[in-house]
Amino acid sequence: MVYTRKNQRDLTRTERKKFVSAVLALKKKGIYDDFVRTHIEYYTADGDSGLRAAHMAPSFLPWHRKFLLDFENELRRIDPTVSVPYWDWTEDNTPTASIWGEDFMGGNGRRGDHQVMTGPFAHRGGHWDITVSVTEGRFLTRDFGRPAQPVNLPTREELEWAINDPLYDSAPWNSTSPDGFRNKLEGWSRGFGADRWRNHNRVHRWVSGLMLGGASVNDPVFWLHHSFIDAVWSHWQKLNPGAVYLPERASGGKVVGRHEPMPPWDTTPASMWDHSRVYRYA
Fold first, then answer.
1. How many domains does the chain have?
2. Does the chain have fewer CB atoms within 10 Å around its N or its C terminus?
3. Residue 136 pLDDT > 80, yes or no?
4. Among 35, 69, 44, 124, CA closest to 275
């Protein structure tokens, strides 16, 4: 049966509680940290050697669709009524938005060490110990808007700039690709300061703290952010029914072709193109 992913602002109190409880259960079982390890392992940049599957590459979108779906399947093993909601950061774009409620994601980090002190994922609650990371901190951190280097969440107009490109991706198939929906949504740019970061990337920068870098999965808001990225891709696919994943074949062993497996799975970008038989967006 096809299930639904809802806007987080439309969740009932019960639905919020069920989602949080399922996430905490995965953390307690050690399963959550496996997802953190995977994301760190495949956080590969343009300048690194080897295959790029998860970031700065055409497979950014299908890789994260598969990653998100695997996580959702684990949640649904805990509670079959749960799905991953999405956070539309063009609308819920303030530190007081419902997503940051004490019964859901919790709020901003405190001054000084940026430790999150509210909500179910605050370290002091005893349920959210950071054990897999690229830093030594044991608590969740956030620094909304990065006051030291200010950045704003993307606007609807900036998101539409990506959606309005009918081409999926373009050579050289990395963070410098000048055209294509994928890179515009992923958010790499040749600008300066905050202008270097667009859409997806700028959201990670705005939340800041552990949402920066490969260990960003340590912040549960990661999943709501990527659920929205997937929803935007889904919308773009409906607007461009004739579009296909590009490139068709691998380019110099650096990126994944349309029918080639995306590590760590045997799953191909082509097989992740259509999600309509699994889930839909409200």
1. 1
2. N
3. no
4. 69
Contact by Cβ (8 Å): 161, 120: no
Enter the tokens of residue 27.
């953390």
Query: pLDDT tens-digit profile of 166-209?
Result: 999 999 999 999 999 999 999 998 776 677 889 999 999 999 99
Give the number of other CB atoms < 10 A from CB of residue 129. 11
Q: Hey, how many other C-beta atoms are within 10 angstroms of the C-beta on 102?
A: 11
Domain residues for 138? 3-281
Instruction: Find the CATH number of the domain harbouring 105.
Output: 1.10.1280.10
Whose CA is closest to 35, among 73, 64, 67?
67
pLDDT 10s digits, 9-56: 999 999 999 999 999 999 999 999 999 999 999 998 876 778 999 999
Sequence-separated (6 or more) residues with CB below 8 Å from residue 124: 117, 139
Give buried/exposed letters for 197-231 (b at 16+ CB in 10 A, else e).
bbbbbbbbbbbbbbbbebbbbbbbbbbbbbbbbbb
User: Considering only CA atoms, which of 128, 121, 129, 133 is closest in space to residue 43?
Assistant: 133
Residues 6+ apart with CB under 8 A from 146: 205, 206, 208
**With pLDDT > 70 as the criterion, what percentage of the chain qualifies?**
99
